[in-house]
Structure formats: structure tokens, C-alpha cells
């Protein structure tokens, strides 16, 4: 039985690098399932930088909305799938007028089904700052928080990353990954 993992942290906390280390340690055929959509030059540069740092170590799959479907398809040929990131996925769902709660329930079911493929979920912890001043931002924050809580239930390992350092919140200490 494979252990699914949730990696949380703030912006530029080191969560993606940590998750990549976990994925490379855990599998021989890792996939990187990217949820980002490129809407401006700054985001284009971020995506390009992430791709360059990964090099050829991962097969990259891009899917901004249909996460469960992409996971099921990728699991046919990969032993570990890193999803980066859930907060961008939630944003994409909101912009497409999607039902986030239903999509999270579907993702939960997909993770239950995929017990032969390790799934590592990366997400920004956005609920630790000030209360947003507008309804849409508060809705996003609340949806991200409830998504994290729901997925932490099914994930065997949950880590919080700050300053590049992992804090084990649930499960096994990963030890040194390098």
C-alpha cells in the first residue's frame, strides 16, 4: 500500500523542492502534474524556472482543472505523481465556475483508488495571515483550508515547510532526501 502525502507551506517556502525530493526518493517513474495556467510573462517565467530545475527527472503533465482524471491516467505509467499545486487548481476551478467541494470529493475518491501509486500533493497554506478584505479572497482562503483538512484525512504523511525546513505534522519523518 502506497503512502499519499500532502506538503503545505507558504510562498517560496521550499515546499516544491521538498516534494520533488520525496518523489525522486519514492519512485523510479515520477510524473509532475502541473496545474498552473500561464496568463502573463511573470507566470511564464515561474513555469519555465520550475521546468528547468526539474530537468528530465520527471515526466511533465499539464492539467489545470481535471485533476482526478489526470491522476488516474498518469497512474497507468508512473509509480509516483507530484501535483503542484492545489491552490492553483482551486483558483482554476473558481475561474471556471467549477464546484470546488465536488472536485475535492472526487479527488479524495481518486486518492482512495490509487493505492498502488504514490501521490504527493503540494499546496500553499494561505490561512495564516490577515483576513482578506473581500468576499472572493475569503472564499478562496476558506476553500483552500477545507481542502487541506479533507486531504490531510486521507494522506498518510503531511508536512509543513517553512524556510526550506520540513515539519512532520502527520506520519513518518522523511529523513534526509539528498
Task: Describe the protein in words.
Helices cover about 45% and strands about 20% of the residues. It is an alpha/beta fold and about 180 residues long. It has a single domain (about 5-170), classed as P-loop containing nucleotide triphosphate hydrolases (Rossmann fold, 3-Layer(aba) Sandwich). A seven-stranded mixed beta sheet has the order 3-2-4-5-1-6-7, sandwiched between helices. A hairpin with a 2-residue loop joins strand 6 (about 155-160) and strand 7 (about 165-170). Helix 3 (about 65-75) packs parallel to helix 5.
Quick overview:
By secondary structure, the chain is of the alpha/beta class.
Order of helices and strands: EHEHEHEHHEHEE
Helical amount: 40-55%
What is the topology, as strand order, of the major beta sheet?
A: 3-2-4-5-1-6-7
Radius of gyration: 15 Å
How many distinct folded domains? Answer: 1
Q: Name the CATH superfamily assignment.
A: P-loop containing nucleotide triphosphate hydrolases
Averaged pLDDT, please? 93
Number of helices: 6
Amino acid at each position: 500500500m502506497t503512502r499519499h502525502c500532502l506538503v503545505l507551506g507558504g510562498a517560496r517556502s521550499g515546499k516544491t523542492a521538498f516534494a520533488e525530493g520525496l518523489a525522486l526518493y519514492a519512485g523510479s517513474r515520477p510524473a509532475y502534474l502541473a496545474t498552473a495556467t500561464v496568463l502573463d510573462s511573470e507566470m511564464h517565467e515561474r513555469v519555465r524556472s520550475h521546468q528547468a530545475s526539474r530537468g528530465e527527472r520527471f515526466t511533465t503533465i499539464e492539467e489545470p482543472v481535471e485533476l482526478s482524471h489526470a491522476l488516474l491516467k498518469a497512474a497507468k505509467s508512473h509509480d509516483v505523481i507530484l501535483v503542484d499545486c492545489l491552490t492553483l487548481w482551486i483558483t482554476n476551478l473558481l475561474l471556471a465556475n467549477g464546484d470546488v467541494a465536488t472536485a475535492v470529493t472526487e479527488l479524495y475518491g481518486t486518492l482512495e483508488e490509487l493505492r498502488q501509486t504514490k501521490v504527493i500533493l503540494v499546496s500553499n497554506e494561505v490561512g495564516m495571515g490577515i483576513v482578506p478584505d473581500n468576499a472572493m479572497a475569503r472564499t478562496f482562503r476558506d476553500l483552500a483550508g477545507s481542502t487541506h483538512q479533507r486531504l490531510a484525512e486521507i494522506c498518510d504523511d503531511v508536512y509543513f515547510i517553512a524556510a526550506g525546513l520540513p515539519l512532520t505534522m502527520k506520519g513518518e519523518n522523511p529523513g534526509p532526501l539528498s
